[in-house]
């Protein structure tokens, strides 16, 4: 058999890099596979102000660079490949990629999750420049500004209420005429003095030169098109999208236990239902998806992978 790694990590975001660091420091032969850009979502994040200790040069790319440097220092290999097939039933796990086939005693699944995009003109171009998908990450950037929250589920309404700590006004824009959030959450939002609502409406386009300057709405009942411009003194406003996340877990469907939305179910030790396979980061069922929880997951997964190998493979 070809070279068998102690652990192969699928995903090079914060969870995968943290797992790689801990695994390599534990003297395990470690391979991190990333199909796109190392760092995941934070690689395109302008500022990571809520990561403990990240004060000087607190940008996403800088944080990723430091994580990668640590992984390299302790001997973890990082390669670019897209895994197309996995075989988890044997003691030695097999991962078939576009470039190579890999063998591992254990696997840490950390492919992350991606925000569901509306797909409207201007959305991608202005992401991080007024368009956001994370209130915890970016809410304070809009202190005393106006903010629109797109969505009507639990997360949209809860995040809208969180943003009221910073913004002077928050408007929830929902494509239906009533919210889908739990009634208890709705009641709090309806009573909140800073929150307004726009019903039966969706975004058609987001406009701006470097920053969000206006947004075009369409009323789905009347077909009326309206454009909201930034207050002249502000020059910009925030648009927070909460129309769902998509866990990148399709490869493991039918093999790993998942919830109805495709997030991997693990225990507190990151163990999945398959021995030797661990989940970490945004791809798993959890209450908070942030860099700080992702790196925690990765560290736990690596330590548990080491224990699994010690108990199941003879020297």
From TrEMBL:
<keyword id="KW-0274">FAD</keyword>
<dbReference type="InterPro" id="IPR050097">
    <property type="entry name" value="Ferredoxin-NADP_redctase_2"/>
</dbReference>
<dbReference type="GO" id="GO:0004791">
    <property type="term" value="F:thioredoxin-disulfide reductase (NADPH) activity"/>
</dbReference>
<feature type="domain" description="FAD/NAD(P)-binding">
    <location>
        <begin position="5"/>
        <end position="298"/>
    </location>
</feature>
<keyword id="KW-0676">Redox-active center</keyword>
<dbReference type="InterPro" id="IPR008255">
    <property type="entry name" value="Pyr_nucl-diS_OxRdtase_2_AS"/>
</dbReference>
<keyword id="KW-0285">Flavoprotein</keyword>
<dbReference type="InterPro" id="IPR036188">
    <property type="entry name" value="FAD/NAD-bd_sf"/>
</dbReference>
<keyword id="KW-0560">Oxidoreductase</keyword>
<dbReference type="InterPro" id="IPR023753">
    <property type="entry name" value="FAD/NAD-binding_dom"/>
</dbReference>
<comment type="similarity">
    <text>Belongs to the class-II pyridine nucleotide-disulfide oxidoreductase family.</text>
</comment>
<dbReference type="GO" id="GO:0019430">
    <property type="term" value="P:removal of superoxide radicals"/>
</dbReference>
<dbReference type="GO" id="GO:0005737">
    <property type="term" value="C:cytoplasm"/>
</dbReference>
<keyword id="KW-0521">NADP</keyword>
<keyword id="KW-1015">Disulfide bond</keyword>
<dbReference type="Pfam" id="PF07992">
    <property type="entry name" value="Pyr_redox_2"/>
</dbReference>
<protein>
    <recommendedName>
        <fullName>Thioredoxin reductase</fullName>
        <ecNumber>1.8.1.9</ecNumber>
    </recommendedName>
</protein>
<comment type="subunit">
    <text>Homodimer.</text>
</comment>
<dbReference type="InterPro" id="IPR005982">
    <property type="entry name" value="Thioredox_Rdtase"/>
</dbReference>
């Amino acid at each position: 058999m070809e070279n068998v790694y102690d652990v192969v990590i699928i995903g090079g975001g914060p969870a995968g890099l943290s797992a790689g660091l801990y695994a390599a420091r534990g003297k395990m032969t470690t391979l991190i596979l990333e199909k796109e850009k190392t760092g995941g979502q934070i690689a395109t994040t302008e500022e990571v102000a809520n990561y403990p200790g990240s004060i000087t040069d607190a940008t996403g790319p800088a944080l990723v660079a430091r994580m990668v440097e640590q992984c390299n220092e302790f001997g973890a290999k990082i390669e670019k490949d897209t895994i197309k097939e996995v075989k988890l039933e044997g003691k030695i796990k097999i991962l078939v990629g576009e470039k190579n086939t890999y063998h591992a005693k254990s696997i840490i699944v950390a492919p992350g999750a991606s925000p569901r995009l509306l797909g409207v003109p201007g959305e991608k171009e202005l992401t991080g420049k007024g368009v956001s998908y994370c209130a915890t990450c970016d809410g304070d950037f809009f202190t005393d500004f106006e903010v629109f929250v797109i969505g009507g589920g639990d997360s949209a309404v809860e995040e809208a209420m969180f943003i009221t700590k910073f913004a002077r006004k928050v408007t929830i824009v929902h494509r239906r005429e009533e919210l889908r959030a739990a009634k208890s959450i709705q009641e709090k939002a309806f009573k909140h003095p800073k929150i307004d609502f726009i019903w039966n409406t969706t975004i058609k386009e987001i406009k701006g030169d470097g920053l969000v300057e206006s947004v075009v709405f369409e009323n789905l009942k009347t077909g009326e098109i309206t454009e909201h411009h930034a207050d002249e003194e502000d020059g910009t406003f925030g648009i927070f999208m909460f129309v769902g996340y998509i866990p990148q877990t399709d490869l493991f469907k039918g093999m790993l236990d998942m919830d109805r939305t495709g997030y991997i179910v693990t225990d507190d030790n990151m163990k999945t239902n398959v021995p030797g396979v661990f989940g970490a980061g945004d791809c798993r069922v959890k209450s908070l998806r942030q860099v700080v929880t992702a790196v925690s997951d990765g560290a736990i997964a690596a330590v548990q992978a080491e224990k699994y190998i010690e108990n199941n493979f003879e020297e």
